[in-house]
Each structure stands twice: as structure tokens, then as C-alpha cells.
Amino acid sequence: MTAGLLGTEAALQDTFDVALVDLDGVAYKGANAIPSAPPALGEARDAGMAVVFVTNNASREPETVAEHLAELGIPCAPHEVMTAAQAGAELLAEHIPAGQKVLVVGGAGLYTAVHAKGYVIVESADDHPAAVIQGFAPNLGWKELAEATYAINAGARYFATNLDLTLPTERGFAPGNGSLVGVVRTATGVDPLAAGKPEPAMLHMAARKAGASRPLMIGDRLDTDLKGARAAEVPGLLVLTGVSTARDAVLAVPGERPSFIGEDLSTLAESHPLPVLAESWWHVGDARARVTDGHLSVDGGSPIDRVRAACAAAWEAADSGARVDVDTLPHFG
What we know:
Elements: H1 12-15, E1 18-21, E2 28-29, E3 32-33, H2 37-46, E4 50-55, H3 62-71, E5 81-83, H4 84-95, E6 101-105, H5 108-116, E7 120-122, E8 131-134, H6 142-153, E9 157-160, E10 166-169, E11 172-175, H7 177-188, E12 193-194, H8 201-210, E13 215-219, H9 222-232, E14 236-239, H10 246-250, E15 260-262, E16 276-278, E17 281-284, E18 287-292, E19 295-299, H11 303-319
Parallel strand pairs: 1-4, 1-13, 4-5, 6-7, 6-8, 8-9, 9-12, 13-14, 14-15
Antiparallel strand pairs: 2-3, 10-11, 16-17, 17-18, 18-19
Helix pairs in contact: 4-5, 6-7
């Protein structure tokens, strides 16, 4: 799959058979739905596109996630949710035989997923667990991290549901599971095997769950959602409603670049023009962009087409070894 932007003649919801949708920053932010999300996902379903919500949040059960989405006006069944807890339990099963003792450091969703795989869940390193699996929960504290450290230092294998350093909240960004994993990593010197995005396994599992052959990953973070899409060789749509900005997209490294960019989920109902190079300018619709002596110039067209054209120009320049001056990047509002 090319590391550049792709184009579609038909709307995305008619081109792909399932949307693998991240939650925080895509469907909702904090306690509230992103306004465009409920109608856009409803229209996509009406067009025949399946939806699976794929989240690195391992603290909640799929039933709880589905109920929350329904309260926000986004109908969802539990089987349409794939959590990092479920992916983590699958990863655990690849390395640790069922029936072994596992120290779970996380929330209810992780306990349920690990138990469902046939493991004996313990709460102390003194029980000599074969493995430790760590996922985010807002009530985790020193005691739980210490037990994980004791167990790993005693020889337990170390697993993590995901390595997100931050998570979005209504008040801003707060420490995520990756930050808490960092505490245990520092204390043990051991890097965990991780299951969530950007690892590709979670996206492959979600696509199989939907019986899909043409999945589209939709996320707001280049370093997890879109990096995961690249790793899984699945086209990725970046929506600009969460963490990563248009400026971030323009500066994205090849392994984190989206295949499509939209303002929000309403872009699922739109076709996406393929960037075209003509007379040293990259054209997307009526927008155009080029890099000259490290300076990115962008004009014309709609704001989102200017972002797309800017990405095409900046990525080509960066990949050819040319300099793209961060200080000269225009503002993408």
C-alpha cells in the first residue's frame, strides 16, 4: 500500500465494507458525542457499511461501551466492539497456556477478557503468576504497579493491552496506559508485549469479527490509529476531531501517514479526490500546494482540500530528502 494519500470515485462508505472506528476523539470526546458522529455513522450503516468500534481502552467491557454509545445516539451492539482488553487476552493466549496463573493489573474489561481465556486470575506476586497483563483503569495506584513489578522481577512474562502515553478527557490530556506501563518498565527493565494499536493484530481481529474484506480504519491519532493501519496494511482515515492536527498530518512520517483525511466522520459520505501533480504543484480539487526551498505554499480550494494538497506536497518533498521548514508551515484552521 502506497504511503501517500489515496482517492476514491465513490463515497468511502460505498468503497469499504466495514469502518473500524476509534472511540475517543472520533465518536466522542469526554462525556459528549462529537456532533457529526451519530448522523454520519447512521448514514454509513444505511449505505451498507458495517461498523466495529476499536478502542485501546481496556478498562470497560464491550457491553458497557455499547451502552455508552447508545446513550450518545450511536446504536451499537456488544459484538460490534473490540477492546484492547480482548486483544490483550488473545495475545496472552498465544504465549501462555490456558489454566496458568495471571496477575491482572487493570479494569473490569481486562479481568473479564482474561478469565474468558481460561486463566486463573491472581492479585499478588506471591501467587507466582506465569504472566502479568496491564491495562488502563483510572483507579490504579502504587500497590497494583508494585505487585506487577514484584511478579515480573520474579520471572513472570509481561504483557500490555496498549502503550498510549495519553488519553483525552474533558479537561485535556491525561496519562494513559503507556505512561503507567512506563513506571513498571522503569522498575523492571522489561518491555511488555503489547496488543493494542499500533500493533496490527487488533485491526485484523476486528475485520474478521465483521466478516469484512475491505476494512477502513478511522482514527484521530497518527501514532496509534494510523500507524496501526499502516502496520495492518489497511487504509486509514484521519479525522481532525481529536489528538492529531492538520499540521501533524503534513509532518507525518511514512509509517504514520493516513490514506485519507477528513474534517470529521461526515467525510464517510464523500468521495476523496486523488492528489495530482501538475507543473510542480500538487492539486486536490481547487486547492494546490508545493514545496520550494523548504517553504510550503498552499492556496485555493476548501480548507480540507488544502490540507490534503499540503500533505501530498510535503510528503513528496520529505521522501525525496528535501527540507520542509516547520516554521514556514501555514496555519490549517
